[in-house]
Write a structure and sequence with these properties.
The complex is a heterodimer.
Chain A lengths: L1 H19 L3 H26 L7 H19 L5 H21 L5 H20 L1 H4 L5 E2 L8 H22 L2 H11 L1 H6 L4 H27 L1 E2 L1 H4 L2 H15 L6 H17 L1 H13 L2 H12 L1 H15 L3 H4 L1 H14 L1
Antiparallel strand pairs in A: 1-2
Helix pairs in contact in A: 1-7, 2-7, 2-8, 2-10, 2-12, 2-13, 3-4, 3-5, 3-10, 3-12, 4-10, 7-10, 8-10, 12-13, 13-16, 14-15
Chain B lengths: L3 E10 L2 E11 L4 E5 L6 H8 L7 E6 L2 E2 L5 H7 L1 E3 L12 H9 L6 H15 L14 H14 L4 E5 L7 H16 L3 E5 L3 H7 L2 E6 L2 E6 L1 H6 L1 H8 L5
Parallel strand pairs in B: 3-8, 3-9, 6-7, 7-8
Antiparallel strand pairs in B: 1-2, 1-4, 4-5, 9-10
The chains are: A mainly alpha, B alpha/beta.
């Protein structure tokens, strides 16, 4: 029971948060964080637990978002129907991909997934009559307040993490990890490796598609370069999981928090620090530096990932014992 | 009809014929030894039996059923378990989790899989190290884990591929004890082994191959005295 205490406390805090926090800006960041919990945890099922590294999760995210958008565009259905269908459509994209690409192992599978993401982005760009191409799809948001979106995102995050936790703790989870550790040994133990890789892919695609559908509803605008973005989604999903802890249940949750905070830290020029200093000192150089920092968040990600891989190769959650030990030692010395 | 048999098994890798027409039959409850010098095609034969790859031609028949085209996991479910010569521990899992993963081939619930795994670990003498990560085991532990994992799939026929290689004399003695115990449990065993002391003491019958072809078959005594076998191992001077 003690093991479950921290997530439950965290959940309670998150559930009560909008009562205490009225700032739209802060709620927006929290919604992004929750979306990343869903995407990062989904990526982690396929790559972290099953060992099939994907560079193409933007495909599932974008397909989920476009499902919601296109239902509205073509059938005048509420884009919330996308929340019912987005995950399933992502699975429909995922399964043929799995059937074709799962015979590939290791880096070759990763390359194929990269091609999937980029390929679908081009399809969405070119098929203008169907998707609107680069014009994208715009919808009127259902709610003006951010609070409903926050709770929907929270529900999605909780459901996805909880369902993943259940699956990983049972037979499929053991099979996923066995496949990750040694596919030939797994097959000799009676594990249908192709079947279980596809199950893992389906779970992963489903929740990523759901996150995409929510994104459409929340942001109100999508175009192919936004939702099928290689660096904003496919790579970011990997970073979220690596920073938090690949192959751990709560790693991507922690990683999502760190990455969203980190991105915002850079985007705002260290929360306005440079702007403030620039005004105080009247130095244009500092203001200019602040502008550069705002552009440099990708560089920041790079450095963060290098630091994590060097010092916490299993991520914050995976190496939590190590972090505790080192912090404790510092305290003792002090 | 033999309980298990391979008929005219052939495997070609490009221009190399690794196994060239091997035929043998194994009776239920037997310990059947498969010997031969390095590169003679023993492991290739095991790989064909366990479905790692299909034979180029020939048949594998288990309980009157041809299995040579089946996938590994199907063959496992039919009741053929195997260990790997180059051990394949599921490294970042504990010994217990390795065996639980294997137990799931027969049961679906976590509770059943766990209790079955604990019984298997007890049987194989691994209970005391069940919480150890598989990758941190020494070679004797890894070899034993291979056997435990295969046993957890409840095989009727167990293929042991050099499970005694690299063990010290005490560990060797324990390995022989374990293999005997598995047979007493009703499991039929085909064993590949280089250590003559092991193969000669535990096998009921031995089949010797060289360059992918059968050179002798019989009781351990008969095979040990066979000139073709001596020649294959020691060269013509000693034959």
């Amino acid at each position: 029971m003690k093991k479950n205490l921290l997530p439950l406390v965290l959940l309670a805090v998150l559930a009560l948060l909008p009562l205490a926090v009225k700032s739209n800006y802060f709620l927006h960041l929290m919604i992004l964080f929750l979306l990343w919990v869903v995407i990062g945890s989904s990526w982690n099922v396929l790559a972290g637990f099953t060992g099939q590294v994907s560079f193409g999760h933007a495909a599932f995210f974008g397909v989920g978002a476009y499902t919601a958008g296109l239902l509205f565009q073509h059938l005048q259905l509420s884009p919330w129907w996308g929340m019912a269908l987005g995950g399933f459509v992502a699975v429909l994209i995922g399964l043929p991909f799995g059937a074709i690409c799962f015979p590939l192992r290791g880096a070759y599978f990763a390359l194929a997934s990269l091609a999937l993401g980029e390929g679908i982005r081009h399809v969405a760009t070119i098929a203008e009559n169907f998707t609107g191409g680069m014009m994208g799809i715009m919808i009127m948001p259902t709610f003006i307040s951010k609070v409903p979106y926050y709770y929907i995102a929270l529900a999605l995050a909780v459901l996805s993490v909880l369902s993943i936790r259940l699956v990983i703790g049972a037979k499929p989870g053991y099979y996923f990890v066995s496949i990750r550790e040694d596919q030939d040994a797994a097959a000799s133990l009676g594990i249908n490796t192709t079947l279980y890789k596809n199950i893992s892919l389906s779970i992963s695609a489903f929740w990523t598609g759901m996150a995409g559908a929510l994104y459409m509803n929340y942001m109100g605008f999508i175009d192919p370069n936004v939702v099928f973005s290689l660096h904003d989604y496919s790579v970011m999903a990997i970073l979220v999981a690596i920073v938090g802890g690949v192959g751990t249940i709560y790693g991507p949750t922690v990683g999502a928090f760190i990455m969203v905070a980190f991105q915002e830290f850079f985007r705002t020029g260290f929360f306005g620090l440079f702007e403030y200093l620039g005004e105080k000192t009247g130095s244009t150089a500092i203001s200019a530096l602040g502008g550069a920092v705002q552009q440099a968040h990708v560089l920041g990600f790079g450095i963060l990932v290098i630091v994590v891989i060097l010092f916490l190769p299993n991520g914050v959650v995976g190496d939590w014992e190590k972090i505790k030990r080192n912090v404790f030692r510092i305290n003792q010395a002090g | 009809m033999a309980y298990f048999r391979v008929e005219k098994l052939v495997k070609k890798f490009g221009g190399l014929t690794a196994v060239n027409g091997v035929t043998f039959g194994v009776e239920k409850g037997e310990i059947f030894g498969l010997i031969g010098p390095n590169g003679s095609g023993k492991t290739t034969t095991f790989n064909m039996i366990s479905g790692v790859y299909p034979p180029t031609s020939g048949k594998v028949v288990f309980r009157n059923r041809e299995i040579q085209r089946m996938k590994s996991h199907r063959i496992c479910h039919l009741g053929v378990g195997r260990t790997f010569q180059v051990v394949k521990p599921l490294g970042r899992m504990t010994v217990l989790d390795n065996v639980i993963a294997a137990s799931f081939s027969r049961v679906n619930s976590m509770r059943e899989a766990r209790s079955a795994a604990l019984r298997t670990l007890e049987f194989c003498g691994l209970s005391s190290i069940r919480e150890v990560l598989a990758k941190s085991l020494p070679i004797a532990g890894r070899k034993r884990l291979e056997i435990a994992r295969a046993m957890a799939t409840r095989p009727e026929l167990l293929l042991l591929d050099e499970t005694a290689a690299g063990l010290n004399p005490t560990e060797l003695f324990e390995a022989i004890e374990l293999i005997r115990k598995i047979r007493e449990n009703g499991t039929t065993i085909i064993i590949i082994e280089h250590i003559m002391h092991v193969i000669m003491t535990i096998s009921d019958r031995i089949h010797a191959i060289n360059f992918g072809q059968t050179i002798a078959e019989g009781t351990p005594k008969e095979v040990a005295a066979n000139p073709a076998v001596i020649e294959a191992y020691l060269g013509t001077d000693y034959a």
